[in-house]
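Sample intake sheet
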Amino acid sequence: MLGAQEQRSEVARLLAQIREEYEAGQRGLIGLAYGSAQHDFITQKMENMGVLHNQLQSIVGDIAIAMVSDELKKAP
């Protein structure tokens, strides 16, 4: 079981990674050629966010979605 400091670090890491996946997906809307490559790229980023959210939820519980929402508000 993780200690309190390790949990905070893991939560911070997961939130940062979720934000990075989101930002990459957003950039994919304009950065890739239109069509299936763009769709596949964005789909993968959103699926990655889901996996990370599940990991976060296993640490903090149901508040995870609110934490993700707050983190994504910071994204450019």
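Comment: The helical segments are 4-31, 36-60, 64-73. DSSP finds three helices and no strands in the chain.
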